[in-house]
TrEMBL record, chains A, B:
Residues 9-177 form the Alcohol dehydrogenase iron-type/glycerol dehydrogenase GldA domain. One of its GO terms (cellular component) is cytosol. The keyword Oxidoreductase applies. One of its GO terms (molecular function) is butanol dehydrogenase (NAD+) activity. This is NADH-dependent alcohol dehydrogenase. It comes from the Bacteria. InterPro entries: ADH_Fe/GldA (IPR001670), ADH_Fe_C (IPR056798), ADH_Fe_CS (IPR018211), BDH-like (IPR044731). Keywords: Oxidoreductase. Pfam families: ADH_Fe_C (PF25137), Fe-ADH (PF00465). Residues 188-387 form the Fe-containing alcohol dehydrogenase-like C-terminal domain. The gene is bdh.
Length: 387, 387
C-alpha cells in the first residue's frame, strides 16, 4: 500500500427529504447565494419550487444562473462569476448533475481570482480561496458532489480540461435518490458507465497490498451492475437509485484510490471525443472502455483482469487466467449494450478523420506510468478499434 | 437503505514517515500541547524521541500525561484535565492505541466543561466544546483515531461506559503502520478481533438494499482474516500492518454503518466483563462473538449468516443455508483460536458467580431492536455458553 493523505470533508445528507436541512447548511456559510442549475428538469420534478420556498422562509437571498450545459462551457463560468461579484454572493448552491456542480466549482474559485477563470482550468495551482459550495444532486454519475474536480470546456478551441483543488470540495451535499427517479433511461445508463469508469481508472493498478481498496471497488462495481439494470427497468426503485447515488460518490471521493497509484487514461481519451463532438461523457467512456481493456490485456496485466472477472462477474476461478480476463471484458461490453448504450464511435457521429488529432491531444506524459503504458499510437489504435 | 448524515472530517496521514507532518498539523490549532500516552512502548520504538525532537525544533511547548491504562480510568481523565487547565493547553496529542485516544478525547472535552468529567461519560449530550485532538496511532484495534467515541471506566463502581460526540472526532491522525511492528502477538490478535467485532456489530442487520455497505464490510473482514494471521507470523509485514490499520479506521468511522440500522450488542456485553475483571477488550469480544452468533441464528437471521459464510469464508453457496451459517460461525471461532486467543471466559479468570449481575448491567432497552432481539435472560445464556 502506498502512502496517502486522506481528507473527505464534505458532509453528506443522504436520503428521502434531506432537503429539510438546506437552510441550516447554507446559513453556516452565508445568506446570499447563487443558485446554479441546468435546464428545466429541477423545475419539472418540483425541486426548484421546494428549494425556493425554503430559501424565502429562511430569509436567504438568491440570484440565479440557469442553463448550464452538459460539458459546461467557460463562457458560462464567466457569466456566473460576474453575477456573484455584482451581488456579493457568499455561497454557491449547485443544483443538478456533475456538469452543473463542476461549473459551480470553477465559478466559486473564480470569484476569488483576479484574472480570467480559464487560467484556473489550465493551471489548478492558481486556485486558492474558493466560495463555499453546497450541492443538491439530481444525477448519479460524476461524483463531483464529494470530490475536488471539475471539467470545463472551451468549444472554440475544442479543449475539455479537468482541474481540481482541495478547496473546491463541496462543504455539504444533499443526496436524495428520489430526485433521480425522473432521470431518463439513457442518462441513467450513461451515469452508471461513468461511475464504473471512475472505479476502473483506479482499480486497474499494479500496487500490492491494497486488498481493502480492491474489495471496495469490486463491491461498488457489483452494485452498479445490479442496480444499473434495475434503475433502468424500474426508475422509481429506491434502493437502486440509492446504491447508484452512493456509488457515484465513493467511486471518486478517494476511498478506493487512496493507497493506490495509477494515472487515469480512459477519461482523458474520452475528453477529446466530447471536446470535438460534444457527446455524452458516459457514453464515450462506455464505448472506449472495453477496447481499452482488450488493448491493455497482456502478461503483466492479466492478473488484475482475472481478479476482476472472478470477483465482479463471478467467473469460475479455475479457468485459465486469460480466458477469465477475456470473458470479463466481453461481459463488460455486453453489460453496456444491455443498458442501451451505443457501442461504436460511428453510432455517436464520430468519424475517422479526427481520430489522429484527438489521439495526439489526449496524449499525456504520465500515460507511460499507466496500468498498461500507452503512447499516442496506442491511443489511436484504441480509437480505431472503437470506431 | 436508511437515511443518514455523513461526516468524517478527520484528516489521515497514512504511511511510512508521515510523522514529518506533525508540527504543521499541530500548528494549525495551537502551540501548547498535552502529550497523552500509556506505558513505555512509544519510548521503546523510538517514537517518543522522534516526536519530542519535532516539537522542540518547531517551538511547540508540551506537557505530558503518561501511564494511561488499558480500559482507561476516569481518575486519569481528571488528572489530564487538571494538567491542561494549569498549563493553558490548546491541543491534545494522543500517542498510542484506543485507550490512550479515548482518554484524550474525554480530557479534551472535560477541559471545556465546568463539572466533573464523569458527567460527560454518563451524559454525552453534555459535551459541547472540545479541544482539538490529534492522534498518532500505535495499535490497530478500536478505530478511535477516526471516530467520535470513547470508553471510560470507573473501577470503583465497576462501570465501563461508552460516550461520544461529533466534536470529539480527531482533527487529524497519523497512521504509520511501522509503529505497530512491535505490537506483541496477543495484542495483534486482540486488536484484529476488536476490528472484526466492530464490523460484525453493523454488518448483521435487517436493512434492505445496503449492498455497498455489505460488500465493503465483507472485504474488510477478509482483509482482517488474511492479514491478522500474516501480522502474527511476520510482525514486520508492511502490507499486513497497513491493511489492519486502515481496516481499524474503516470498521467504525461510519463508512459501513451509514444507511444501516442495528444496535450494537456484543460490545455492551463485553464492557461488563472488562468492568468487573479488567480483561483485554478484544479477547472478551473474541470469546463472546461465536456464542452470540450461535444464539442469534434462527429463521429470521440465517440469510445474513449464510451471506457472511459465502462472501467472507468462501463456503459453497449451494449448501443448505443453515449449514453455511453454522460452518461460518465455526470458522469464526476457529480463526480466533488460530490467532491464539482464549476461547472461554474461564481461561481469562471469569467465574459463574457474577454472570447474572453482569447480564443485568449489560441489558439495555434498545437490545429489543437488535439483529436478534435479546433480553437479560438471553444475555445470561450467551455468557453461560461462553463460560
Amino acid at each position: 500500500m502506498e502512502n496517502f493523505n486522506y481528507s473527505i470533508p464534505t458532509k453528506v445528507y443522504f436520503g428521502k427529504g434531506q432537503i429539510k436541512n438546506l437552510a441550516a447548511i447554507i446559513k453556516e456559510y452565508g445568506n446570499k447565494i447563487l443558485i446554479a442549475y441546468g435546464g428545466g428538469s429541477i423545475k419539472k420534478i418540483g425541486l426548484y419550487d421546494e428549494m425556493i420556498k425554503i430559501l424565502n422562509d429562511n430569509s436567504i437571498s438568491y440570484v440565479e444562473l440557469s442553463g448550464i450545459e452538459p460539458n459546461p462551457r467557460i463562457e458560462t463560468v464567466r457569466k456566473g462569476i460576474k453575477i456573484c461579484k455584482e451581488n456579493n454572493v457568499e455561497v454557491v448552491l449547485a443544483v443538478g448533475g456533475g456538469s452543473t456542480i463542476d461549473c459551480a466549482k470553477v465559478i466559486a474559485a473564480g470569484v476569488k481570482y483576479e484574472g480570467d477563470p480559464w487560467d484556473l482550468v489550465t493551471s489548478p495551482q492558481k486556485i486558492n480561496e474558493v466560495l463555499p459550495i453546497v450541492t443538491i444532486l439530481t444525477l448519479s454519475a460524476t461524483g463531483s458532489e464529494m470530490d475536488p474536480h471539475a471539467v470545463i470546456s472551451d468549444m472554440t478551441t475544442n479543449q475539455k480540461l479537468g482541474t481540481g483543488h482541495e478547496n473546491m470540495k463541496p462543504k455539504a451535499s444533499i443526496l436524495d435518490p428520489e430526485y433521480t427517479y425522473s432521470v431518463p433511461k439513457n442518462q441513467t445508463a450513461a451515469g452508471t458507465a461513468d461511475i464504473m469508469s471512475h472505479i476502473f481508472e483506479t482499480y486497474f493498478n499494479h500496487t500490492k497490498g491494497v486488498d481493502i481498496q480492491d474489495s471496495t471497488a469490486e463491491g461498488l462495481l457489483r452494485a452498479c451492475i445490479k442496480y444499473g439494470k434495475i434503475a433502468i427497468e424500474n426508475p422509481k426503485d429506491y434502493d437502486a437509485r440509492a446504491n447508484l447515488m452512493w456509488a457515484s460518490s465513493w467511486a471518486i471521493n478517494g476511498l478506493i484510490s487512496y493507497g493506490t497509484n495509477s494515472p487515469w487514461v480512459v477519461h482523458p481519451m474520452e475528453h477529446e471525443l466530447s471536446a470535438f463532438y460534444d457527446i455524452t461523457h458516459g457514453v464515450g467512456l462506455a464505448i472506449l472502455t472495453p477496447h481499452w481493456m482488450k488493448y491493455s490485456l497482456d502478461d503483466t496485466t492479466v492478473f488484475k483482469f482475472a481478479q476482476y472477472g472472478i470477483n465482479v462477474w463471478g467467473i469460475d476461478k479455475n479457468l485459465d487466467k486469460f480466458e477469465i480476463a477475456n470473458k470479463a471484458i466481453e461481459k463488460t461490453s455486453e453489460f453496456f449494450k444491455e443498458l442501451g448504450i451505443p457501442s461504436t464511435l460511428r453510432e455517436v457521429g464520430i468519424k475517422e478523420d479526427k481520430l489522429e488529432l484527438m489521439a495526439k491531444k489526449a496524449m499525456n506524459p504520465y500515460f507511460k506510468y499507466a496500468f498498461k503504458p500507452l503512447d499516442e499510437n496506442d491511443i489511436l489504435k484504441i480509437f480505431k478499434a472503437a470506431l
